[in-house]
Write a structure and sequence with these properties.
Blueprint lengths: L33 H9 L5 H4 L7 H8 L26 H13 L2 E5 L6 H11 L6 E6 L9 E6 L2 H37 L3 H18 L9 E4 L9 E3 L5 H5 L1 E2 L17 E2 L2 H4 L4 E4 L7 H13 L1 E2 L18 E2 L3 E6 L1 H6 L2 H9 L1 E5 L3 E3 L2 H18 L7 H15 L4 E3 L2 H17 L7 H10 L3 H16 L7 E3 L1 E8 L3 E13 L8 E4 L4 H18 L6 E7 L12 H13 L2 E3 L2 E3 L2 E2 L5 E2 L4 H11 L3 E5 L17 E5 L2 H8 L5 H12 L9 E2 H12 L1
Parallel strand pairs: 1-11, 1-12, 5-8, 8-11, 16-21, 18-19, 21-24, 24-25
Antiparallel strand pairs: 2-3, 2-4, 6-7, 9-10, 13-14, 15-20, 16-17, 17-19, 22-23, 25-26
Helix pairs in contact: 4-5, 6-7, 13-15, 14-16, 15-16, 18-19
């Protein structure tokens, strides 16, 4: 990564004093400023009334605000659960209205959004809204003129079963009559041979006649139609989930017949198998991750949508190939396609155009406003999950409050509740399982808290293992100070925080033309760009010409790679520390994106990062000021770590660098950027959290 040509500042300003501590090594004895000494005396930095004017609410007041659901109830058995699925959908009011309109007008829908937000539930709900009286059965008949071209007949739902049964009864009567006639004929031959003295030849002749008759006479079963699609006794229109279906299962197929001749072969019409598009006739066909379908299958699906009928033929090498092909089979279905944002890009353009031109496109929300009305909806959601599961006890009010707290945490946005209800439903079921195993009549808050510990994601378990491993081998420091070393924070899987050590060193440039920023640790696109953006900040912050020096940045232990720009603040702090030879407090962890002008911008997963820092033994965590209201850490961590919201890199340096020399760079920063800033007032996590809960509710 090469700097721009206009970065030509006197290289002599880079301080490479040999007597300075080496990068990454602890600095045991560093003269501290008066501010740092006050922090040490207080034990955890500026806390309490000395530095924070925030009014601290009592525990009871905070709990009332935080736990306010909007109404009172004993347990979720008192909550009415709607019978229709469309009324059970939460937080997707726009999508619900679209589904109702699409069901009445038989329009196709494409739903795009995060997994677990209710796409399949909406598709099932749409099937309930379709009229039942339109359902049809589809029969496959033999074609005596061309056995490889079976005929198709569509009849009202339930009628197909009667037709097949009638044909079977007729075939059975004919078979019985024929068998009786043949037995009488064979018995007559045997009696005649007995009287003429040729009994043995008579028996042989009778057996041969029976074999030839079975082999060459037409079978009555060949004329029995096959029920390809049956809607007998169905209460709603069919809902078919064709997610991940291969071509044969989706479009229909013809089974392979090992006996191709000799009278033992299976009739062609009896080997025809209907596909999901035919089973969804007059109903709903749901396909999630539609972009994973092969383009040929998407093209065939487009044909079925346009023609509303599609013939069945062999789709695989184990089928009969193109030898058997039915008449066009009706497939007048409503298609509900779904996927993530990348599904739009990889989807067949003609298929998407068909859906867009004759239907609706809906983006699924992944969070909703944290209001009393929406909290009531979450109460109903818990009741729905209990009823739907059928094996777990109902939740009391305290348990529901814990579920709502977790919904706030998982939303990742201030003042919002998550709509990733599949994952939240998993928490409900695990809590219910714990209550059931204990023989409890109701699921309580203690059961939900235990479920949160047990039902951790793979990423959370891996993050815990990661932290334990790093503690054991001291991959990151938790005390003292070191030059060029910063404890950054990152997120794994969206819900698990980890400590990400970052080390920087400044060396003479290998290239005679200009210096470079060399970053290691399997950085991906956005992370590489973030490292490049830091170069402008370093130039402005330090006034140093680094054109004749290489800046090495190492993301320690990032074997899986690094993506995103949330480490920008950590990178800049590590590099400035290495250039100026000013130690960094190793009890501090930090996260935040950084603009080229030194502004600290918001990042994602700040709650999980703070908890990871507390679990790792850090005493202070620096976060973007814009993320201050997003902090919803567990109560167990609130008294363990101090939260410092900042809005500029200058504030980051004030709270992370140690020693009297840090004042020099702060003054230099004021002179270079012409910015006057106040040192932010900080508070322990417990005080910060109470203030946030009060403001949000």
């Amino acid at each position: 990564m090469v700097y721009n040509d206009n970065q030509n500042i006197d290289a002599s300003s880079v301080k490479m004093d040999e007597s300075s501590p080496k990068v990454g090594e602890p600095v045991p004895d560093v003269d501290k400023s008066a501010t740092d000494q006050r922090k040490d005396e207080s034990g955890m930095g500026m806390t309490g009334s000395e530095s924070n004017p925030v009014t601290v609410e009592s525990e009871s007041d905070s709990d009332v605000d935080e736990d306010d659901i909007g109404f009172q109830f004993e347990n979720t058995s008192n909550i009415d659960v709607p019978k229709l699925l469309i009324d059970q959908v939460l937080g997707q009011e726009h999508a619900v209205e679209v589904v109702k309109k699409a069901a009445s007008q038989r329009r196709h829908i494409m739903m795009i959004g995060t997994p677990g937000t209710g796409k399949s539930l909406l598709a099932k709900a749409m099937a309930e809204l379709l009229p039942k009286e339109e359902l049809k059965d589809i029969l496959v008949y033999p074609n005596m003129e061309d056995l490889n071209n079976p005929k198709i007949r569509e009849v009202p739902a339930g009628k197909g079963r009667e037709i097949v049964m009638a044909h079977k009864m007729e075939a059975r009567k004919k078979a019985q009559a024929r068998n009786m006639l043949m037995m009488l004929f064979v018995v007559g031959i045997i009696i005649y041979s007995y009287f003429v003295g040729q009994l043995l030849w008579g028996i042989i002749a009778g057996i041969m006649i029976l074999m030839l008759t079975r082999q060459f006479l037409p079978k009555e079963e060949m004329m029995i139609p096959k029920m390809a699609v049956s809607n007998y006794d169905k209460e709603h229109a069919p809902y078919i989930d064709a997610t991940g279906a291969h071509a044969g299962a989706l479009l229909g197929d013809v089974r392979h017949d090992p006996f191709q001749s000799g009278g033992l072969e299976t009739p062609a019409h009896d080997r025809v198998e209907a596909g999901d598009i035919h089973k969804a006739h007059k109903g709903v066909l749901f396909i999630d991750e539609i972009n994973t379908l092969r383009l040929e299958s998407q093209q065939s699906l487009l044909t079925a949508l346009q023609e509303k009928e599609y013939p069945i033929t062999g789709q695989s090498e184990r089928s009969s190939g193109a030898l058997v092909k039915t008449e066009p089979v009706p497939c007048d279905f409503i298609m509900v396609s779904a996927g993530n944002l990348d599904a739009v890009q990889k989807m067949h353009p003609a298929l998407r155009s068909r859906i867009k031109g004759y239907g609706y496109e809906v983006y699924m929300r992944d969070s909703m406003e944290d209001s009393p009305e929406n909290r009531k909806k979450l109460v109903r959601f818990v009741a729905q999950e209990v009823v739907r599961d059928g094996h777990i006890p109902h939740f009391d009010e305290g348990a529901v409050q814990e579920v709502i707290r977790e919904a706030r945490r998982r939303a990742g946005r201030k003042g919002h509740l998550t709509l990733k209800l599949r994952d939240l439903g998993g928490l409900v079921r695990v809590a219910g399982d714990i209550a059931h195993s204990e023989g409890s009549a109701l699921t309580t808050a203690e059961h939900v808290l235990a479920a949160k510990r047990i039902a951790r994601s793979i990423e959370q378990q891996l993050a815990d293992s990661y932290l334990d491993h790093r503690k054991e081998y001291e991959s990151f420091l938790r005390k003292g100070s070191a030059v060029g070393r910063v404890n950054g924070l990152a997120v794994m899987g969206g819900d698990s925080g980890i400590v990400l050590p970052i080390v920087s060193e400044v060396t003479p440039a290998l290239s005679g033309a200009e210096g470079r920023i060399i970053a290691t640790g399997k950085l991906k696109t956005i992370a590489k760009e973030a490292v490049q953006n830091v170069s402008a900040v370093i130039k402005n912050m330090t006034g140093t010409d680094v054109s004749r020096h290489d800046i090495h940045i190492q993301f320690v232990g990032t074997y899986e790679g690094v993506e995103g720009d949330s480490a920008s603040v950590s990178i800049a702090t590590a590099v400035i520390s290495a250039i100026e030879r000013i130690p960094v407090d190793q009890t501090v962890a930090m996260t935040g994106s950084l603009s080229v002008r030194g502004d600290v911008l918001p990042v994602g997963g700040v709650t999980y990062k703070i908890e990871a820092a507390a679990q790792a033994g850090m005493k202070k965590v620096i976060i973007p000021k814009a993320n201050e209201a997003d902090v919803l850490i567990e109560k167990a961590y609130r008294d363990k770590i101090q939260i410092v919201p900042v809005s500029s890199i200058a504030e980051v340096l004030e709270h992370s660098l140690v020693g009297p020399r840090k004042n020099t760079i702060i003054e230099k920063l004021k002179n270079i950027t012409k910015i006057n800033f106040d040192i932010p007032e900080v508070s322990p996590a417990s005080v910060q959290a109470k203030s946030i809960f009060r403001c949000r509710n």
